# Entry
Amino acid sequence: MPKTSAATPPLLRRVNASKLLGVLSTAGVMTGTGLIEATGLTRATVHAVCNDLIGMGWVLELDPVRDDTSVGRPSRRFEFNSGAGFVLGIDVGAAKTTVVVANLRGETLAKAGRSFAAVKEPGERTDLVDEAVVDAMLAAEVTDDEVIAAGVGVAAPVDRSGSILADDEFWRRFDAGLTARLSKLHGWPALLENDANLAVLGEHWRGEAQGVDDLVVLLAGERFGSGLMDSGRLLHGSRGGAGEMVYLKLVEGVGDTHGIARIAREGGAAAIADPAVQTVLRELAGGEPVTAEMVFAAAAQGDQVAIDVLDVVGQRTARVVATLGILFNPELVVIGGAVAEAAKALLPSIEELLATFTSTPPKVAVSSLGDTIVSVGAVRHALNYVEQNALDLTLTARRF
# Structure
C-alpha cells in the first residue's frame, strides 16, 4: 500500500476555513455552537479559524445576544461578509452580451447589456462587452479594486484550463482575446467557460435542478448546445468538447444543430411565404420577419399551421433529448435559453415520444432562469473561484 503523507497544519487550516466559509456563505447569522454542529469541528478550531477569517475580512463578528436567563458568557455570533468583495457574470452570446454584478452571496446588484447587431469585427464585440462591464459596475457602485473575479461564458468549447478549442476554424473566431483584455483593463481575473457549462452551474445553483447532480442543460435557441454534470461535477472532455452537438448531423430525424427558435422561425416563415396558406402568423408578423415567439403565440390561439410547425419542433427536440439520455443517463434534462418559457408547450409531446426512444427516459423541465441562465452560471463560476482561493485573496472591499 503506498504511503500517504499526513495533512500539514496549513492544509488543515485551509480545509477547515473552506468548511466554515461554505456554511456561513449560505446561512444567516450563526453561533459558534451552530458552526460546530454544521462542520463537525471542535470548538477551539471553530473559534480559531473564525478569528483568522475575521482578520482577513471574510467573516463579521456580531454583538452577542444577552439573555437574562442564561448563565455564563453569551455565545459568539458570526456572519459571512457578503460585501467583502464582488464578482461579475458575463454572458457573451451570439446576439448580445449581458453583465451581472453580484455580491459574495450571489445576489444581483446591477445588470447591463449591449447588442451585437452592428458588429462586424471580433474586436468590436470585445469593446461592447467592456462597455457593458463598465455600465454594470457604475450602476452597482463597485470599483475594479473591489471585484475579485469574473466568470465569462462563450458559445465555444472551453477546456479545463479555460482555453477555447482552436483546432477548428469556426471556434477560432470566438477567441478574440476577450478575457486577456478584460483582465488587462480591469486587473481582475476573467475566467472563461463554455456557455452551456455555465448554464448547468446556474440551473444546479438557482434553477430547476437544485439538488440534482446528474444533469444535462440543453440550450435550445438558434442552435442546440448542452452542458453536462455527472455526480455534481462538470464534464469537459479532453479538450472541452464534451456536450458539443455536432453529432446531431448523424441522427436520423434531426440532421443538424439547429435549435428550437430557428426551426420554429424558419417553419413559420416558410408558411407565410405561400399566399395560399391561411395562418394567424401573417397577421402577427404584420410584414415583419416571423419569430419563434410568434409561432408559439399562434399555436396557443389554435392556429393549425403553427401547431404543425411546433409538432416538427417537438419531434426533433425529443430525439435530441433521447440521445442525451442514452449517452449520459441524466436524471434531468433542462431546456434553457430565450425560448425556454415558450417551450413548456412542447413538454407533453417530448415526454410522450421519449418513452418510445429509450427505456430510461430522463425527466424534462424548462428553465425558470430565462435569458439570464448563462450569466447566473457565470456568477456561480466566479464564486467557485472565490471559495477555492479565499485564503490566498486580499480583500479591498470591507463593506460591513
Summary: Residues 1-6 have pLDDT under 50 and may be disordered. The first strand starts at residue 30 and ends at 31. The radius of gyration is 24 Å.
